[in-house]
Design goal:
The chain is an alpha+beta fold and 244 residues long. Helices cover 48% and strands 14% of the residues.
Length: 244
């Protein structure tokens, strides 16, 4: 009788622990992922939230199944990046940038509800990597996407090669007079002073989260938009560096 009661109590405590982890993890992730401005603290909180929720899921299944799942996830996490369909990733990056047209501009925003200039460039590329990782069965790309998400990078940091995210294609006097024949859709630019960045989508068209317009817009030069008169540096994601 005593053993049965003790076992029942352990099961109740275990169930409460699992439920608590699941609810706490889901709430933490939801609250931080919808925050208008992301930073290192919110990113850590999101990781903790996801970890707590996954921990609850693992605790709720038999230990043998748990070991298999953890092993499979570990193998997938360590798999190298296979050859990438560059054209497809570039196309997906453009699709993601276009999907953000009209999104309100907020400095530091990166959650898809509000966004800033570097958030636009990084988010569109990151989402393209996730889509390619899943549909192209190339899980190594998920590590790149997570790294790009976790280690926030301003326009200036991208220009200066922060964490080898991107490489410089070359400087131009301004986008209004630049020869963009060296660019490919999915590349981007950063102003020489590191204050602004925008995504190149081809046919001389650019998409930017414009702090003057306070929204994501599409622009084709020549234009009176002041950013297109600034000295700039043309950029390429390091994943495509071999195509220079």
């Amino acid at each position: 009788m005593w053993l049965a009661t003790a076992k029942s109590n352990r099961q109740v405590r275990r169930s409460r622990l699992i439920a608590g982890l699941a609810v706490a993890g889901a709430l933490l992730w939801a609250m931080t992922s919808w925050a208008a401005i992301g930073n290192g603290l919110t990113r850590v909180a999101q990781v903790v939230g996801v970890g707590a929720f996954l921990g609850a899921v693992l605790l709720s299944i038999p230990i043998r199944v748990r070991v298999v799942i953890v092993g499979v996830l570990g193998v997938l996490a360590l798999m190298p990046v296979r050859e990438v369909d560059e054209a497809r990733v570039r196309s997906r990056s453009i699709d993601e940038a276009r999907a953000l047209l009209g999104t309100p501009y907020v400095w530091g925003g990166e959650n898809g509800n509000v966004i800033d200039c570097s958030g636009l460039v990084r988010t569109s590329f990151r989402r393209a990597l996730v889509r390619e990782a899943v549909t192209g069965v190339n899980p190594g790309l998920l590590r790149r996407a997570v790294k790009l998400w976790f280690f926030d990078a301003s326009a200036l940091a991208l220009k200066d090669g922060y964490r080898a995210f991107a490489v410089q294609v070359g400087p131009v006097q301004s986008l209004n007079v630049a020869d963009v024949s060296t660019l490919r859709p999915g590349d981007f630019m950063v102003t020489a002073n590191g204050l602004h960045t925008m995504a190149y989508v081809g046919q001389s068209e650019w998409i930017e989260a414009d702090p003057g317009e306070l929204r994501v817009i599409s622009v084709t030069p020549p234009t009176k938009n002041p950013w297109f008169g600034e000295p700039a540096v043309l950029m390429r994601w390091s994943l495509f560096a071999s195509s220079r």
